[in-house]
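User: I'm preparing a small set of examples for a lab meeting where we compare how different chains pack in three dimensions. I only have the primary sequence for this one, and I'd like the structure in token form so I can line it up with the others. Please keep the answer compact; I'll paste it straight into my notes.
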Amino acid sequence: MPELPEVEHLRRSLEPWVVGGRLERVSVRRRGVVSFASDEPRSDLNAALLADSTIVATHRHGKQMALEASSGRVLVIQLGLTGSVTIERGGHPRGMDAKHRHVIWEFRPSESTVRAAGIEVTKPWRLAFRDPRRFGGLTAYASQDALKEVWMTLGHDAATPSESLLRSGLEQSKRPIKSALLDQAVIAGLGNIYADEALFASQIHPLRSCNTLTKREFHRLTGNIGRILDHAIRAGGSTLRDYRDAFGLPGDAVQAHKAYGRGGEPCLRCGATLDSFQLGGRTTVACPRCQDLSTNGGG
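Assistant: Understood. Below is the structure token output for the 299-residue chain.
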């Protein structure tokens, strides 16, 4: 599932083209991927999907991205397991790329970006939301303020992790630390990949109870979350199978993974064989030596 780095890289790859650009007509091929927030009138699907409006900003919190229109309306995009938002130029895609395109906009990209890139736009481009497994979707909000109220129910954004917030939320908890990191109400944006990576870098076993972590370990964990996510964003995110950016390009962050997906392989730090086990229904990888479950990490 795309996590914060993938969503943030997608937002950054879209932003220069869509901010200042205009969404024109919209075609909805699968109505079930569109939902409405409680405050959003349901009578006008086109307006809810920002048709015939200029995009003035993009936003992200955790794993959710939003487009804000000049009308004040906001459309949240959740990628789920296999979702993507891609810019299509020229002819319509064929084969597998043409399948599962549930919502398609015709749009005029930002004039300033087009001029800077030296591109001539004679016909509208297309912006397509594609999701083969349909775990993602689009949610319409009447305003940015309405969206902010919902995002306030999530934890602080993992791209700028707060040691004090992380400690205050977890130091009394008996939950396994990895389970807590996957809780979007604790910290928004971490998923299975980067939770494994941050815990490995911090030499903290995923099964450790939160209330056994020391101040030093919380400090180390907070720093590693920020560092690892920043590196993954700059690498374009992790493409395991489906994730692509706005122009269909995969990310390279998977090449830096030291724990995730490496169960049974040698630890890159000490050489021990990495353990792989299930935690809360998620495959989890840890080093039995570097992330010794019996130690409190010292200090």
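A couple of notes for your slides: The first strand starts at residue 22 and ends at 28. The chain is about 25% helix and 25% strand.

User: Perfect, thanks.
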